[in-house]
TrEMBL record:
Cofactor(s) the protein needs: Ca(2+); pyridoxal 5'-phosphate; Mn(2+); Mg(2+)
Protein name: threonine ammonia-lyase
Catalysis performed (reactions): L-threonine = 2-oxobutanoate + NH4(+)
Function: Catalyzes the anaerobic formation of alpha-ketobutyrate and ammonia from threonine in a two-step reaction. The first step involved a dehydration of threonine and a production of enamine intermediates (aminocrotonate), which tautomerizes to its imine form (iminobutyrate). Both intermediates are unstable and short-lived. The second step is the nonenzymatic hydrolysis of the enamine/imine intermediates to form 2-ketobutyrate and free ammonia. In the low water environment of the cell, the second step is accelerated by RidA.
UniProtKB keywords: Lyase, Magnesium, Pyridoxal phosphate
Keyword Lyase: yes
Cited PANTHER family: SERINE / THREONINE RACEMASE FAMILY MEMBER (PTHR43050), SERINE RACEMASE (PTHR43050:SF1)
Record-linked Pfam families: PALP
Amino acid sequence: MMLKLEQIKVAYETIQRDIHHTPIMTSKKLSEACENQMFLKAEHLQKTGSFKIRGAMNKVKQAVKEGATLVTAASSGNHGQAVAFTASQLHIPATIVVPEDANRSKVAAIKAYGGHVEKCGFTSEERIPRAKAIAEEKAGVFIPPYDDPLIMAGQGTIGLEILEQVTDADLVVVPVGGGGLLSGILTAIKETKPSVKVIGVEPELAKDTYLSLKNGEITSIGQTKTIADGLRTSQPGELTFPIVQKYIDDLVLVSEEEIRQAMLFVMERMKQLIEPSSAVTIAAAMFGHLQVTNKKIVTVISGGNVDISQLHDMMA
C-alpha cells in the first residue's frame, strides 16, 4: 500500500514536539557558485545530528503505544543513534546491532544516547536477522531504517516543513539511500504541490536506485565503498521504490570528488560541518547536474555526524 499525505500529517502531529523544526539556511556565495538561489534544509542541526530522528520517533512511539518493552535496530550510524535516543526519551531500552568493525565514535554516540550495543558480522545481511531475533526474544520491536510506513511518514514531515518555509520553491533535491527520506518527501510535496520538482541524488559508486529506475525493477548492486557512508544501501526498499517510481522527476549521480568539493565549500564558506551523504545535494547543484539556472532550489542537508578524527583523510 502506497504512503499517503494524511499519514505524514499524522506523523507530524505525533512528533513535532519531540524534534527540532530545523531552519532554512542561505549563502550568497553558494548561490553564485550554483547559478541558482540556494536554500539548505538544515537537518544536520536536528536532534541526534540527522533527519533519522523523525522516522524513529514516529515508529517507536507507535511501538510503545502497542506495548513494546524494547526496541532494536541494525545500524552503526544515524539510524542507530536516532533509535537509541528515541527509546531513552520514551523510557524503554534499545539494543543497536552494529558491525564488528563499527567506527568507535559512532558506537560511543549510540551509547551516549542510552543504547546497548551488540556487535555482529560485517554486513547488514548479518546484522538485521540478529536485531530481529533480539526483538523476538524479548517481546520487542525491530525498527527498520527506511522500508516501513511509519518511518517513511516521519521522514516525509521534512517535505511539509519545506513547503511552509520556502513557499515559492521550484525544486527540492534529496539524498538517496534506501529511499525512506526520498519517498516521504516525494509524497508530502507531490500530493500537496505537484508543480514543485523533486530530484534525487546518489553517489556514482552507490547507484542502486538509479539502476532500479533504469531497469524498471529493484536492482541490487552489492556492497559499495563511497565516502557517503549513509547512502551505501545495496538496493532500494520494497515499499519506498514504487513511490520513487511514481513521483520522482529525475535522479542524478555525483562523483566522489564532487562530494568532497561540495562538503569543503559548505565548511569553508558557510562554517557548517555536514556529512558527505548530505553534500551530494550541494554537489549536484554546484557541478551542473540539475541542469537549471535562476531557480529557487532547496537542498536537504540530511545530517552532520562526521567523525572529526577522520575528517582529514575524508577530504584528502
